[in-house]
Each structure stands twice: as structure tokens, then as C-alpha cells.
């Protein structure tokens, strides 16, 4: 008779191919051996070491689902297993990687010209060039369609646009070499994607100040993108994609990565809480793991992690077959982020006063998971996307 495995209660491993298991193992080993030992100090210092993306590049973990240009070309599920391994250590490390892979390399692969792909992808896959994705603005977060950033024809320099506007809460922006900025083309009023290459921007036209003193995601660097008549050559605009379809197509991939990624963070919380509960003794020298209320917390969390993992694998398979809808991605992004946050918060109680020490790591996951529930569409926004699909009536406005 098969034995129950509390770390994989519903046997999700059985759904994975040999290649996916190998990718997962490589990623897990790197993350546990190389990332885990440095995360506490990085979080305390609010510091992100860009060398991490180099290391990930060497292992083939960046842009892993993309075909060609030195990318690994693995399945969507394998890409998700990489995000799960990274987020088991810290959501901020996963964020830096997701932006590089899904939100900058992905759209260049999907929408870029042959020259754009040749110029950026071979360097980005190695982590030698770093990317940022600028959609959110100070006045427009959940409603990016109302953005104010514009691109107008350069009045004197032929073949150039001038970009002006501000993006905020942008992962990696202070360290990025190439910033994918979504802006309205003045001539048409339509949203277009522009590859703003820091190396080519004259002084004073592009600033990317960091946003400091965050109370979550501190091991990831976040900033603004301020554009003041920044000249960008016509050939740096994505040639065809127009409107919100551009940014949202890549968000489908990034949101998928978060759905499996947050299961890694939750699994780490379960493992830490279980170990703690077995070691901590209260009342007649009993481990607190013996008490029913503590066991229920672990049972709830393990159930949600197992369910969340299975559905993410199912949707990943459908995505590779061209059968996944954006609403499916909304459903798993919302559910997995919400469940990871709720359970992590409850598991935190198992640590008693020690939960307050950052050495125990659970508080860091809780603070990070709030952010995962907020970015890439806050959970209530995903509820409205689902509500619209179920009723045919939109409730945004
Ligand atoms: P709506 O009318 O719904 O759609 C406008 C156009 O966009 C298309 N579209 C999609 N296409 C592909 N995939 C999707 N998921 C799509 N969602 C929409 C749609 O078909 C339509 O195309 P067309 O050709 O007909 O024009 O637009 P709306 O303005 O009513 O949108 C409302 C809403 C709520 C759906 C949308 O704005 C939304 O999802 N808001 C949330 C904002 C968000 O997710 N921001 C993410 C910022 S990036 C980020 O957070 C990165 S953090 C990364 C990290 O650190 O890990
Ligand atoms: P708002 O849109 O102001 O929403 C505030 C609240 O109101 C939310 O709870 C929301 O659900 C609710 N709300 C809004 N509209 C409605 C409605 N119609 N009905 C009901 N409720 C509603 N963005 C990028 O472009 N690139 C990045 O790399 C990036 N990285 C990020 C990193 C971090 C650490 C953080 C915190 C954010 C990042 N973001 C990034 C921005 C993120 O995507 C936005 O914060 C998010 O989309 C929400 O937008 P907002 O903060 O403006 O909130």
C-alpha cells in the first residue's frame, strides 16, 4: 500500500515528466544551497544582489519556457516548478526572476522584431542584461487602460519617439538595463510597448529611483521609472501588438508562475511550522504538534497547498495545448495567493512569540504573500474578471 507523503499529499509528482522532475530538482538544489543562506541578510538590508540573475542564467532558469536564443524551451509546468523552488525561499527572489523571464523576455519573444530578439534575448537568458516591466502608474494601478504615459514623434530627430510619464512600484527598475514601458502612442491613443534601453538614454531623460522602506518583498528591489522626453528609436517599439492585449498576454504567464510559486512559499511555511510544533513542548511536556488545534492548522494548509499545486499543473498542461483561458489563470492566481496568505498567517500562530523574530522566516513569507495577492491584479480584481466571465456583466466601472 502506498504511504501518505505529507510533503506531496495528493501525489502531484506523478503528473510530472522526467524532464520536469529534473528541472525542479536543479532549481530546488540551487535555491536551497545558494539562495536560502543569503535571504535573511538581504531582507534585513533591503538589498537585491543582481548576481543572482547571473547564477540563475548559468543554470538555464531564466526565460526557461522560451524556444531558441539559448533558452531551455521547457514546458509551462516546468517553468512553474522553477518559480515554486525560488519562492520556497522568498517571493522577492521569484519576483526578480518572473519579471526578467515572463514580463520582459516573454513579450520580446512573443511580440519583438527579429532584431529586438537578437539584441536582447541571448544576453537576458544569461542574466547579463536585466529587465523591468513598467505598466503601473501613480494614478493607475488596477486600471492600466487609463495610463497617462505617452510617446510622441520627436519634433526634430527623425525616427525617434519622445516618451514622457511616470511608472511606479516597478520590480527591478533601479538595476534594469532594459525597461519595457507601456505608453500611449500620441498619434493613435493606443497602448504600445517600448524597449527603453538605459544605455541609449541621454542624462536626465530617464530616472529610476528606488522605493525604500518596504514592509514586504524586501529582498527584491522596487522603484519608479520617470521619463522626461526620453528619446526612443522607432525600432524599439513592438511592431504590431496594440492595446492592453500586449501587457496582459505576458501577465498570463507571470500570473501562472505566481500561482505555482506561492505554493512553494506555503510549503515552506508548513515545513517550518511542523518542525517547530514537533520540537516545542507545552503542558506536561507534550509537543504542541500533539494538540488538535495545531494539527488542524497544518491539515488546512497542507490541503490547500496540495489542491493549489494540482490545479496549477492542470492549467499549465492546458496552456501548452493552447486551451487555457485568461479566466483560468485569474482563478488560480487569486485562489493560490489568497490561500497561501491565509494559511501562512494562521501557521505563524504556531510559533508563538518566536513568530516575531525574523530568524524564523515565517513573518517574512506572510509579509511577502500580501504583495503577491496585490500585484499582477489584486485578488478582488480577479474576482471581478471571473464575475464578468460568469455573468456577462462587468463590475469594474
Ligand atoms: P478589458 O476590456 O478587459 O481588456 C482590454 C483588452 O485586453 C485584452 N485582455 C487580455 N488579453 C490577454 N490576456 C489577458 N489576461 C487579458 N485581459 C484583457 C482584452 O481581450 C482586450 O483586448 P482588445 O483587443 O479587445 O482590446 O480591459 P479593462 O480596461 O476593462 O481591464 C480591466 C482589468 C481589470 C481586466 C485589467 O485592467 C486588470 O487585470 N487589471 C489588473 C492590473 C494588473 O494586473 N497589473 C499588473 C501590473 S504588472 C505587475 O504587477 C508585475 S509584478 C511582477 C513581480 O514582481 O512578480
Ligand atoms: P489600486 O488600483 O488603487 O487598488 C486599491 C484597492 O482598490 C485594491 O484592493 C483593489 O482591488 C481595489 N479596487 C480597485 N478598483 C476596484 C474596482 N473597480 N472594484 C473593486 N475594488 C477595486 N507594476 C508593474 O507594472 N510592474 C512591476 O514590476 C510591479 N511590481 C510591483 C512590486 C511590488 C512590491 C508592488 C507592491 C507592486 C508592483 N506593481 C508592479 C504594481 C501592482 O501591479 C499594483 O500595485 C496593483 O496592480 C494594484 O494597483 P494599485 O496599487 O494602484 O491599487
UniProtKB/TrEMBL annotation:
Enzyme Commission number, as recorded: 1.3.8.6
Cofactor(s) it depends on: FAD
GO BP of this protein: fatty acid beta-oxidation using acyl-CoA dehydrogenase; fatty-acyl-CoA biosynthetic process
Keyword Flavoprotein attached: yes
Transit peptide is among the record's keywords: yes
Localisation: Mitochondrion matrix
Organism: Lasiosphaeris hirsuta
Protein name as it appears in the record: glutaryl-CoA dehydrogenase (ETF)
One Pfam family matching this protein: Acyl-CoA_dh_N
Family matches, as CDD domains: GCD
Gene Ontology MF, one: fatty-acyl-CoA binding
InterPro entries: Acyl-CoA_Oxase/DH_mid-dom (IPR006091), Acyl-CoA_Oxase/DH_mid-dom_sf (IPR046373), AcylCo_DH-like_C (IPR036250), AcylCo_DH/oxidase_C (IPR009075), AcylCoA_DH/ox_N (IPR013786), AcylCoA_DH/ox_N_sf (IPR037069), AcylCoA_DH/oxidase_NM_dom_sf (IPR009100), Glutaryl-CoA_DH_mitochondrial (IPR052033)
Domain annotation Acyl-CoA dehydrogenase/oxidase N-terminal: ranges: 17-128
A Gene Ontology cellular-component term: mitochondrial matrix
Similarity-based family: Belongs to the acyl-CoA dehydrogenase family.
Amino acid at each position: 500500500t502506498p504511504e501518505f507523503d505529507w510533503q506531496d499529499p495528493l501525489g502531484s509528482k506523478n503528473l510530472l515528466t522526467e524532464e520536469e522532475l529534473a528541472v525542479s530538482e536543479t532549481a530546488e538544489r540551487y535555491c536551497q544551497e545558494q539562495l536560502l543562506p543569503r535571504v535573511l541578510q538581504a531582507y534585513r538590508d533591503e538589498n537585491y544582489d543582481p548576481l543572482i540573475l547571473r547564477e540563475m542564467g548559468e543554470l538555464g532558469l531564466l526565460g526557461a519556457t522560451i524556444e531558441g536564443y539559448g533558452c531551455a524551451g521547457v514546458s509551462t509546468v516546468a517553468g512553474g516548478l522553477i518559480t515554486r523552488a525560488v519562492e520556497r525561499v522568498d517571493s522577492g527572489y521569484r519576483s526578480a526572476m518572473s519579471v526578467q523571464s515572463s514580463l520582459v523576455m516573454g513579450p520580446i519573444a512573443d511580440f519583438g522584431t527579429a532584431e529586438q530578439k537578437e539584441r536582447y534575448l541571448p544576453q537576458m537568458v544569461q542574466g547579463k542584461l536585466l529587465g523591468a516591466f513598467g505598466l503601473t502608474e501613480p494614478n493607475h494601478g488596477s486600471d492600466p487602460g487609463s495610463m497617462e504615459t505617452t510617446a510622441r514623434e520627436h519634433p526634430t530627430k527623425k525616427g525617434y519617439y519622445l516618451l514622457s510619464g511616470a511608472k511606479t512600484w516597478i520590480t527591478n527598475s533601479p538595476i534594469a538595463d532594459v525597461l519595457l514601458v507601456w505608453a500611449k502612442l500620441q498619434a493613435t491613443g493606443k497602448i504600445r510597448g517600448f524597449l527603453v534601453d538605459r544605455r541609449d538614454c541621454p542624462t536626465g531623460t530617464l530616472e529610476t529611483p528606488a522605493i525604500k522602506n518596504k514592509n514586504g518583498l524586501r529582498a527584491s528591489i522596487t522603484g519608479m521609472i520617470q521619463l522626461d522626453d526620453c528619446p526612443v528609436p522607432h525600432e524599439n517599439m513592438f511592431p504590431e501588438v496594440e492595446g492592453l492585449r500586449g501587457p496582459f498576454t505576458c501577465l498570463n504567464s507571470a500570473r501562472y508562475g505566481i500561482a505555482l510559486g506561492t505554493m512553494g512559499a506555503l510549503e515552506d511555511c508548513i515545513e517550518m511550522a511542523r518542525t517547530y510544533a514537533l520540537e516545542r513542548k507545552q503542558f506536561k511536556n507534550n509537543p504542541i504538534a500533539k494538540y488538535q488545534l495545531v494539527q488542524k492548522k497544518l491539515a488546512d494548509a497542507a490541503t490547500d497547498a496540495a489542491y493549489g499545486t494540482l490545479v496549477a499543473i492542470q492549467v499549465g498542461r492546458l496552456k501548452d495545448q493552447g486551451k487555457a483561458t485568461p479566466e483560468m489563470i485569474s482563478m488560480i492566481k487569486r485562489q493560490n495567493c489568497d490561500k497561501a496568505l491565509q494559511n501562512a498567517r494562521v501557521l505563524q500562530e504556531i510559533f508563538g512569540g518566536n513568530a516575531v523574530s525574523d530568524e524564523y522566516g515565517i513573518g517574512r513569507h506572510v509579509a511577502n504573500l500580501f504583495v503577491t495577492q496585490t500585484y499582477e491584479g489584486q485578488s478582488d480584481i480577479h474576482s471581478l474578471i471571473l464575475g464578468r466571465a460568469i455573468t456577462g456583466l462587468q463590475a469594474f466601472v
